């Protein structure tokens, strides 16, 4: 395997990881920001007020995006397995 091939495979894998993680994390970060602004404006310092909405949004993102996330990961894995003969030979 040449170094260029390894770098291409690693680059694709890292991009896929970033894409999958961002689909779950970005909505949670946005809700956390909105709740933080709300807490700062109202001077409410309750820990569960910031945790519970982020948890719910993360679970909803997994629930609605789970099929797409799984399909994307399966497509990458199939592409990786199908490229084995060209990488080795």
TrEMBL record:
Location(s) in or outside the cell: Cell membrane; Bacterial flagellum basal body
Source taxon at top rank: Bacteria
Alphabetic keyword roster: Bacterial flagellum, Cell membrane, Cell projection, Cilium, Flagellum, Membrane, Transmembrane, Transmembrane helix
InterPro entries, per database record: Bac_export_3 (IPR002191), FliQ (IPR006305)
Residue stretches spanning the membrane: 13-39, 51-70
Pfam families referenced in this protein's UniProt entry, alphabetically: Bac_export_3
Membrane topology listed for this record: Multi-pass membrane protein
Functional summary from the UniProt entry: Role in flagellar biosynthesis.
Homology family: Belongs to the FliQ/MopD/SpaQ family.
This protein's name: Flagellar biosynthetic protein FliQ
Native species: Rheinheimera marina
